[in-house]
Specification:
alpha/beta; 9-stranded mixed beta sheet; about 40% helix
């Protein structure tokens, strides 16, 4: 799930990563994911294949026309497709057709600076909606100078969509997921993970191995060429910052301007198992931010006047939903997915506090509206989860031994119960993955095998972002010489550009319009904390609940970037 419009909600992918707090914690036991040597790229068959595909794309261009109604784009936006090889080592074999959207710059021609391509992360998220944001205040200055270009990466949406399971079964609700699963429940998790990994292999066949971050970066260079751009202007959020950093490593001389918003830690030793452990811990800290905020407005929500009392109110709702799902649709899994949105964006805080208060007071309507899955979104949500799983499982070696997963996450769950086991359920198919697993690229000039250094890039990060913890931005700044980090102090919303912080937006506008960075590091004061709305919930029930939480089959979805 994503917050704010631009980083839009991705259905039941109940995302998860981690904060700097784990840096002070004992490191997890060595695993296949942390012990592998990083990869440096030189002149490979794939490198030559990208050049072939880019030349072909430049010659063909993109035939833009009307957008499909489902894209919900402005009337002036235009859509088209471009082709990429499934396998860059064989660029003249199987092709994938990827969808792209564009809205021409709104300003005078003499101020035009080319195309600005956007990716919202995931993996599994589509950027096709990006042109719709040209009229939003926070993006308006950039939209005057740049064509806003979005696209759906390979496997996403109508870009050769990937699927690993029947969407109706994937989106089944209500389901329950315990905070501290029993041994029997863990066996069910393993069974489900194996089945999902097998489904990916069966449905995608030999193509499965080609859904990777490296290929996403190569596809981006083909798109650059198809747009007729000599150098790329690129804005990315969350996971998009990782493959943008990989792009800058592979194609440094094709970079013009890049903004990386809410930065994934690119250290190859942490891709992806280690990053997910760190994310789960960071979620706990951010979950505490919401509970403390709600406690500060006990006169409005009546959930308790301490964070512990708010937590008790939430747990009371969990126990009740485990026995009696709200509206026949919302169990504990759906509750957790919905309240994970609080960790991504402060904008969810008020509505989620009101929904919890109303539910405990006897009115389940607001909670059902907040948390019930939308059947119309089932196919898109399963598609997003399939791409997420394929990319993360293919990108790096994962531990194959369940005992290691169980040991690492059992210890972590004592410190960070909110997301730890849900995150495991999301990523556990990687333990049973049949496609070859790569070794991650070393991001930065050393990983580019002498290809050079990209121009300065701009990094944006919130200090308390849990989805992409702040230490990741500092790590990428270290790896990209000349990069500049803009920090939103004391804030935790995931995705900063275009939001309410004029300071952050000002640095982005200056960089995109002039190329000037603000120095190695600058900071902005946090956005204002949310204020509660005037709506008041009904009176709360006070009878104690002692029945233990029910356990049911877990949903596959759980975490993303």
């Amino acid at each position: 799930m994503r917050a704010v419009p631009l980083y839009g909600v991705l259905g039941p992918l109940s995302l998860a990563l981690a904060m700097a707090a784990l840096l002070a914690a004992p490191a997890p036991a060595a695993t296949a994911a942390t012990a592998t040597a990083p990869v440096r790229h030189g002149d490979t068959a794939e490198d030559r294949g990208v050049a072939v595909a880019a030349r072909r794309a430049a010659a063909r261009g993109i035939d833009f026309g009307r957008c499909a109604p489902g894209e919900e784009l402005p009337a002036a936006a235009r859509c088209g497709t471009f082709e990429v090889p499934l396998d860059y080592a064989h660029p003249r074999s199987t092709k994938l057709s990827l969808t792209v959207s564009r809205l021409r710059a709104t300003g005078p021609r003499e101020r035009h600076q080319g195309a600005l391509v956007y990716n919202p992360g995931g993996p599994g998220a589509s950027g096709m909606a990006f042109p719709a944001y040209a009229s939003v205040a926070g993006f308006r200055k950039a939209a005057e100078a740049y064509d806003f270009v979005g696209y759906a990466p390979r496997g996403v949406g109508r870009s050769a969509p990937l699927s690993c399971a029947d969407p109706a079964a994937f989106a089944k609700s209500p389901t329950n997921f315990p905070v501290h699963p029993s041994a029997a429940f863990k066996r069910t998790m393993i069974k489900r993970a194996r089945a999902y990994a097998d489904g990916c292999a069966r449905r995608a066949g030999g193509a499965l191995r080609h859904y990777t971050t490296l290929n996403n970066a190569r596809d981006l260079d083909v798109l650059r060429a198809a747009l007729g751009e000599t150098r790329l202007n690129f804005v990315a959020a969350s996971y998009g910052t990782y493959y943008g950093a990989v792009y800058a490593t592979l194609f440094p001389h094709h970079v013009r301007r890049m903004v990386f918003d809410s930065v994934v830690d690119p250290d190859p030793r942490r891709i992806w198992y280690g990053n997910n452990l760190r994310q789960s811990l960071a979620f706990e800290g951010r979950w505490g931010d919401w509970r403390r905020w709600a406690a500060g407005y006990d006169d409005v929500y009546h959930l308790g006047d301490t964070a512990a009392e708010v937590s008790a109110s939430y747990e009371k709702a969990r126990r009740r939903l485990a026995r009696h799902p709200a509206g026949g649709k919302v169990g504990t899994t759906q509750l957790q997915d919905a309240y994970a949105r609080n960790i991504y964006n402060d904008a969810f805080w008020d509505m989620s506090a009101h929904a919890l208060a109303a539910y405990l007071g006897g009115d389940q309507g607001p909670l059902v509206a907040l948390a019930a899955p939308d059947p119309a979104r089932a196919a898109a949500e399963e598609n997003g989860n399939a791409v997420y799983t394929a990319v993360q499982c293919n990108d790096a070696p994962w531990p194959r031994d369940w005992a290691g997963w169980n040991r690492d996450n059992s210890a972590l769950a004592h410190r960070a119960p909110f997301e730890t086991w849900v995150n495991v359920a999301m990523n556990l198919p990687c333990a049973y993955w049949s496609a070859p697993q790569q070794r991650p690229l070393t991001v930065g000039p050393r990983g580019g095998a002498g290809r050079g250094t990209p121009p300065p890039v701009l990094l944006l990060a919130a200090e308390r972002d849990a989805a992409t913890p702040y230490e990741g931005a500092k790590e990428l700044r270290r790896r990209l010489p000349g990069s500049s980090l803009v920090t939103e102090r004391g804030a935790g919303t995931h995705g900063l550009w275009g939001g309410p912080n004029d300071c952050v937006n000002g640095y982005v506008d200056t960089y995109l319009l002039t190329g000037r960075t603000p120095g190695r590091s600058v900071s902005c004061a946090p956005r204002e904390a949310p204020e509660p709305s005037v709506w008041a919930p009904p009176g709360l029930e006070t009878q104690p609940e002692t029945e233990s939480e029910a356990e049911a089959t877990p949903a596959v979805g759980a975490a993303a970037w």
